[in-house]
Amino acid sequence: MVSVKIATVENLVVRYGSFTALNGLSCEILEGCTGLLGPNGAGKTTLIKTILGFVKPTSGTANVLGMDIHETGAKIRQQVGLMPEQDCHIPGMTAVHFVAYAGELAGMPPAQALRRAHEVLDYCGLGEARYRNVETFSTGMKQRIKLAQALVHGPKLLLLDEPTNGLDPAGREDMLELVKSVSHGKGLNVIVSSHLLPDIERICDRVVVVMKGQLRAQGAIKDLKKIEGQPIDIELRELSSAFVAALQSKGANVMPPKRTTYRILMPGRVEETARVAMEAARETGAQIRGYAEAERSLEDAFLDAIGDVPPPPPQAVPPAQVVPPVGGVA
Amino acid sequence: MASPIADLSYRNYDGPLDPPINRWWAIAKMSMRLSIKKKGFWVWAVMSGYWYLILLAIFYFADQSTQLGNAVGRKNPFFSNIVWKDLFVNGFSVSQLFFLILALLIGAGTIANDNRANALLVYLSKPCTKLDYVMGKWLGIFIPMTIVTAVPTLIFYLYCLMSYRTYGFLSQDPWLILKLLGMVLVPGALHSSLALGVSSMFQQGRLAGATYAGVYFFGVFFTKAMQSIGVMSAMNGSEGPSGTVNSLYYCSIDGIQIALAKILLHTDGSQLIPGQPATPMKLVMPAPSGWIFVPAFFGICALAMLLAWSRIKAVEVVG
Question: Is B169 inside a domain boundary?
Answer without folding.
Answer: yes
